[in-house]
Amino acid sequence: MQAFMAKYRIAWLPGDGIGMEVLEAAEVVLDKLELDAEYVYGDIGWQFWCSEGDALPARTVDLLKNVDAALFGAITSKPAKAAATELAPALQKNLLTYRSPIVRMRQLFDLYICLRPCKAYPGNALNFKEDIDLVVFRENTEDLYAGVEFGPVPPELADALAKLSKPFAPFAKLAPDEYAVSCKINTRAGSERIVRAAFEFARKFKRKKVTVVHKANVVRATDGLFLDCAKAVAKQFPDIAFDEANIDAMIMWLLKNPLNYDVLVAPNLYGDIISDLCAQMVGGLGFGCSGNIGEKLAVFEPTHGSAPKHAGKFKVNPIATILATRMMLDWLGETDKAAALEGAVAQVIKEGKVRTYDMGGSNSTIDMAVAIAAKLLKQSMHTQSRNDAGGLIPYTRNRLLEQAAGSSASASQLSVTNLAKTTI
Which of 56, 154, 170, 271 lies at a C-alpha separation of 20 to 30 Å from 136? Predict the structure, then answer.
């Protein structure tokens, strides 16, 4: 039998709980789209932490080094002490510390852009207001998610803080196990590149304003650096309006006047917070999609968690995952397919005939996927996308390949294969 090489190689990472179910839904629409891809299963999630002491095994890291993109379901994460108690008995003496595999993945592959579009599709009864169309750029590798934490606090660290920081004085005499320290680390380079990505997106898609979210009036060093970098970058984009707001005020103003905002950019923690709020305003986490984007790899996911109480019931809304799939298609340069998929999602939402429990209906996860796939039959696979240069994603895989190697495509990129799924 003649072997064919797929145009794309995609890591398939179901993870935990409902992650497996929502990726099944994604498979339904990808099959209908006939994307020329090989899907390679990767181990990730809680069961691998419990059995191996690593929720992101080295074999999965190696897989991610050799794919064009990844589609990720959901993950279960627990505090370090709770996680340690669930390790296999043979591993509990090894002093292993749990870290979220998605956070590790972002740092290992420098997936510095967390792009979270939040759009109110017409006809969605869950919309907070109609016409909301927000895009959140969240810095994805630094800030309080850097993973530099201490608890108990080593005496040498306490001594250094007591010497260098007067505000540390009230804590200096505490016993090491009576407090903990988490470091908020923001770099000039990391701040500049995420703000620049937000402005470039705004310019490319004719967005009118970029708002920087921070708390520089209190968190003066790190958020002050972020804000200073943002102001410097903004001067290079005089055609885009720029403003800034404290995170607490931003939450209030988003709820009061969401239509006053367009593109939001923030350090890691604040971006996480405001993107969940924005998702709720357009229907909830069942509609919240996300792309973790770097220069060489992008990992796409719904923003919801693993929802263990719903696992195995096939009742959750897969639209977030299907919209994440749309983002993946944009990243791959398949903008026509991406536009067709978004159109199918919008049509199903507008008709309101198929609704999962969160939408007030009783249809299953797969019912929703099948309904969206059926609409794809009526969508043109040659739909003109919003932007021929790459759809929703500011930096597509194809653009980066062209920058690296010119515009000529390799033989492997041009080969054709039937849709296949491989397991490692």
Answer: 56
